[in-house]
Write a structure and sequence with these properties.
The protein has helices at residues 2-34, 62-71, 86-95, 125-136, 157-169, 185-191, 209-226, 237-246; strands spanning 49-58, 76-79, 100-106, 144-149, 173-176, 196-198, 201-202, 228-233, 255-257. It is of the alpha/beta class. It starts with a helix and ends in an 8-residue tail after the last strand. Residues 21-40 have low confidence and may be disordered. The protein binds zinc ion (ZN). The site of zinc ion (ZN) has 4 residues, from strand 1.
Amino acid sequence: MLAGIVIGLASIAADHFLKRIHRLELLQRENSVKRESAPLLKPEIRPGDRIAVLIDDLGTNFKEFERLRRIDSHLSFAILPFQPYSVKIAKKAHYYHQDVLLHLPMEPENHHHPGKGAIDHLMTKEEIVRQVRLDLRAFPYVQGVNNHMGSRMTADREEMVLVLKEVRAKDLFFVDSRTTSESIAYEVAHDIGIKSAERQVFLDDSDRPEDIRKELRRLVYLSHQRGSAIAIGHPRPNTMKALEEFIPHLHEEEIELVPISALVK
Ligand SMILES: [Zn+2]
């Protein structure tokens, strides 16, 4: 009788294990088809692999923020300066012990304007420093900074040194959103001694639910491969819905969602 129970339990465990491996293999196949650099080795599943999810572009809509805040207390928020709800969102996120980042608007390669508080290459050094300082004071409880747009500026070492020295002066961390593969922001942050990290996954470059789910699976895969991984998403209905469905099941993947401040180094 006891032996029967033991065998039964063992086969449940084995079944669970095989399902997990199968899931990983599917992910891996998907990855190796899409990305030439995909690793051939199956990542080992270690309990305690971690992900952080940073929601960008907050500040214009309080309801969206409230919906996101309720999904999980470890979601992190990047708020644009001088928007109608920037201050209110920062205060509320801080009240619930959630990470607050300044989403610093920076000039992109295309001609889109990054919005209020933006810095660009036509400004003098003094003007850039002055604007960054104003942005850093636009709302309270800022713990870190990441770039909004910025494909032009994050590729410019001299400008990034100016910006990141202001971040360092306030003892904040920096997350490179990596809006361009040419970005050197993470490297510069590291060089000048700021705690920093860079994004691995954009959840919603495509707004299609199936594409967002695919990026979430890639986030899981990368976190097992690297030990941790960082995703950036936006306060859009399909992204919020996908997160509401995904996050409650993270423990099944033996992954922990952590505030982004836990992954900077
Ligand atoms: Zn942004």
